[in-house]
Structure formats: C-alpha cells, structure tokens
Amino acid sequence: MEKKQIKLDKKDKEILFYLDLDARSPLSHIAKKTRLSKQVVKYRIERLVEKGVIEKFLLFINGTKLGYIAYKFYIQLQNIVEEKLNEIVEELKNHPLIVWVATCEGNYDLAIAPIARNNVHAFSILNELLVKYNEYIRDIIPLNYIDVSHMKKVHMTGFNRNQIGAPFWGNEPERYKLDDYEIQILSILSEEARKPITEIAKEIGCSVDIVNNRLKKLLRDGIIQGSTIIMNRSKIGYEYHKILLKIRFYSEKQEKSFLEFVKSEDNITDIIRMMGDWNYELDIEVKNIYEFHGIMLKIRNRFPTNIQSYDSLMILEEHKLNFFPMKNLLKNLIN
C-alpha cells in the first residue's frame, strides 16, 4: 500500500536541511538560520518526528579509525515468502557487525553492509549467511568499500552544496583505542544523535565535562565525522535509487572530472568507491523513475568511453542504519 505523503512548507524544508547538515545543531542556531523562534523550531521538529518524516538522528562514525573495513553484500533470494523475508531482515538487523540493511527492487532483493577487521573476517560473515540461509539465497555479490562521501541533501531546498563538507568513511584502517566512556557515549549517540550532553552524562553516570571533553576528542580525531537525519523519503515524495557502475578511468584527471560531475548533481547524495563487480556506487534521491533515468542518461552521455557496464536498483525500505553496531564487541575488549 502506498504511503501517504506529507506536505512540507518552505520552513520545514529549511529545518530538515540544517538538521541534515548537523543533527546536533542547537535550536537557537536553526532558529537564527530559519528566522523562526526556538519554540516554533522545536515544535516543527517534534511534528516531523511524529509524522514519521524524520526517522532517526544519525551519528556518522568512521569505522576505519576503529580497525573496521566496510563491505556491501547484494543478495538474490529464492523460495522466499514475505514472512520468511521479514524474519531474515530481523535477524540481519540484530547482527553485531552489520551497519545497514535494506530491501530492494531490481536484480537484488536485499542489500546489507557488514563491517569486518579484514577480508578473512568478512569471508566468515559471508559464509555464515550462506550456511544459515542456504535454501533462500540464490546468490550474493560481495563488494569491498574503499571510501564513502555523504553529500548533503540540497535538492529539496535549492541551497548551494559547494561550500558544504561531506562526512567521510575511509582511509587505511587504524586501531584507535576507545575507553569505556567513549564506547558508552558513541553507543548512545549512534541510537539518538541529538541526545543532549546532560542526558548522556546522567545515563552513564559521569559529569557533563567528561562527556563534553570526550566528544571534542572524538571529533578532533575524526572518529565522529558529523551527524544527520534519516528521512522517510516516500513520505515526502522521493524515491531512493542506486546506480552501480563498472567504470574505467585512463587518467587521474578523468576520475577527478567524474567526481566533480557527480558531486555537482544535487540529487546524488552518496558517492561510494569500492572493489568488486562494480567500482562506483551512487545513491540518488528523485521524485520518480523518469527523473532517475534523466540523471543516468546525463552520466552515460558525459562518460561514454569510461562506463563499461552498470546496474541499478531501487531501495524500498531501510531497516537498519547504525555506524556503531560493534559497541558490545568493543566493550568486551575493555572488560
């Protein structure tokens, strides 16, 4: 059944934009930017949450700093009924090393993003899924992330993206050591990125200064890359598509030109470099399939000699997105 769309006015869209820039933005900051009172901003945010437009306040955590590499598994299912699919999705959501779970329309039925210490660790997760769901899995396409740039969503508001930084996952894995306070803080904020520092301090039984200092340290060291909001796209008239590109560049200049082009497309919200059957993945938010095909045609026409093949799919629903699912594993290392 088609979900009922929520009509947003200009101020709602502006509030969503500033929360997308930083989900932890104080009400006073958003009020100043939108020329509304703090009380009105608070009311509008609460209303957007109540109506399901805002599904989650999300913290960006660069897991490579903690020694984890990101992967993507695209899964084709077989012999599946809705009840069993729902059961599998619930089990995947509870996996301590899976950061993202989504159901899809296209050549793949499920997309998941596990994280692992190395390829051997990732292979064990892949085998675990193949053994556990053997009769329901036709095929799994594994991909290895190199890096991810989360572009800010300007397509709803018309704001300029050029001067806006993009939260980032990538670089060489490190073994950054978190203490118990830091693990608890990240655990809380990974579930509710907008939670006030005073409430976090109360929950973990420490002073506000300890929380504040740890947050500054985690930001300074690049563990926390920022924060954003997860929106229910269908409720505001948008679809979520992915383009999977096998693309070859014959010089650094060509790849730079490609990156500049896709970053300039306001509807492209995530740019992912990876190894596997494809080497680029683009997340796109559009109002309909025709708008999506228009963007796809622009990319193909601009880089005809570079694109060797491509695939696309539509994300029907995101069931999990949490950049810090390994919190219990890290706690065990300390205790």
Assign a percent range to the helix content. 25-40%
How many strand units?
11
Low-confidence stretches: none
Overall mean pLDDT: 93
What is the overall number of helices? 11
Question: Order of strands side by side in the largest beta sheet?
Answer: 2-4-3-11-8-10-9-5
Termini, distance in Å? 48 Å
Strand content: 25-35%
> How would a textbook summarize the main sheet?
8 strands, antiparallel, barrel
SS-based structural class?
alpha+beta
Shape annotation: globular
Which series of helices and strands comes N to C? Answer: HHHEEHEEHEEHHHEEHEEHEH
Radius of gyration computed on alpha carbons: 20 Å
Give a description of the structure.
Helix 6 (180-191) packs antiparallel against helix 11 (327-334). It contains eleven helices and eleven strands. With 335 residues, it is of the alpha+beta class. The longest helix has 14 residues, at 119-132.
